[in-house]
What does this fold into?
Amino acid sequence: MGYTEFDDDLPARIKEQADIVQVIGAHVELKKAGVRFLGCCPFHNEKTPSFSVHPGQQFFHCFGCGASGDVFAFQMKYHNLDFPTAMKELARRYHVEIPERPMSPEQQEKRRRRQLMYAVNEKVVSIWKDCLHKSGLAKSARQYLEKRGIPLNIQKQFGLGYAPAPESAGWDFLGSRLKGEEHQIAIDLGLLVKKEKGGTYDRFRDRVLFPIYDRQGKVLGFGGRIIGEGQPKYMNSPESMIFNKSASLLGLYQQGDAIRRSKQAILVEGNFDLVSLVVHGCPNVVAPLGTALTVQQLQLLKGYAEECVLLFDGDAAGVKAAMRSVPLFLAEEFAGKVALLPEGHDPDTFIREKGLSPLEALLATAMPLPEFTLQQLVEEHGLTFDGKNRIMKALQPLLKASRSSLQRSLLLSHFSETLGVSVQDLGAAMVVPKPSAPTAVSPLLSPVKQQKPEQLTPLTASQKRIVSHIVLYPDAVPKLEHAGLREYLSGTIGEVLLLQLGVLLKGSDDVTPEDLLGVLPQGGERLFVSDILLSSSADNTGLSYHGTDGEIKDLLAKLEREDLIQKSKVLEQEICKCRSENDYEGQCKYALEKVKVSQELQNLRKKNVIFE
It folds into this structure.
């Protein structure tokens, strides 16, 4: 038995059990802020938290980059999963049973064989690892890895193994260690090759083996580098039911977190280029499997990085490979750059000879791929009449690959300036592909169970006054924020409202309280703002604000006073610490600073601040 599709209500049942704060909190440090939690966004670089999680409404939203969605959307975006896989992962974690539906005999057999293929690959990893680390047959392989500067911990991190040479281990080293159906599965995986007269022999011989993992850590296949004489130098497993080399990247499983943290992926061409960079302190690196870069591989990387730098040899082949990839990057709307190595170097030799700092300096000079392509074409053809014609012809695939009209306009503008051809004339020769119909996606925001009324942490009277003012008069936000308003409201509902107002003010200079109300979800935040609006209405004397300069002056004075009070508390703690450590000099230093802060507080009080 097995399932072939999900029940319609399964997403809702999973969301009822899955704690979105717990799911996201496993990857993002969150702090309470009113009804929400705030943290630094995992999808873009920031130092001040703008990423909010709403447990009552079960959604997240980043006020900085705009990323938003429910617990499924986070799981998919952060872990680069499709919807069914994200749903199954959450169901497993929160013990939600997925009803199984009957499969056809053919489907059941296909599923069983896939599971066997993964199991056989795992067994083969163990066989080759044991050979590399424990067998006398692998002496040459260990010497080879030592010569290339690959330490034991990196060998184990990437699961390296060794398939021994037939001269020392025979042609059936691997086959003799597989039993029963494992033998046939190994043939299907291409690990064993059938002989014409019966029997099998090992495909990989006298090679250091790199297991190729998927994003969940399952072994899909292998890539082998020959130790002795022979061709090809590198060889991959044949494609199978579970392995498609065009949709796989070596190192993504091991280095994915480093790529996500840096927001940048460095792509090199060779397996040992990859491990050598990792050894020398450059962790955000992956490699294709002896193929030209593919759309599927770029789509994998887009889930981890904001840009990809191609680190290629500086010869003609490297230049050609970089230029060939440009339409792929444009079609995926993924930022691509290229850094070419000095002549005679590949990434492995460069970092071993020069070190990490020169490599980082080279990467810092990486050129955006469209600009690089244009530069290369100008160098090749020149800017004569005939040269420009040839360049325009060569640029057509780039412009046709561009999906968005904005991206296309930018390219045309940039190219036309260099070529001395008007944007209109340059674009006239290019056929713009019609945008494809939107792809149907799974409904991520599925219904959730009725939530209990949200309990808000009460604001102090002073905090509520300031929050009420910025709700009613959003144009006061920049001045108050500069004076430390966010720190004063930290951890309260006011901090979230301040962030939301900041987003609205970026899009318009004329923001009204109703604009704020319109973007807030149902729940405590919306009710809080509604109460402020009702209390400030013309027929209600609960609040009396007019947005005058005097009110702003009072609020700024209040924030200054709160800042001084906090400084005084910190200085008092330092004085106590110095006293306990018998540090008389430090005690005097902090006491003098505290006196100065106290004097500033007294001066503020003399100005008749409206509220305390």
Observations:
- The chain has five domains: 10-93, 105-243, 252-372, 382-428, 461-605.
- The longest strand covers residues 219-226.
- The domain at 105-243 is CATH 3.90.980.10 (DNA primase DNAg catalytic core, N-terminal domain).
- Residues 549-580 form the longest helix (32 residues).
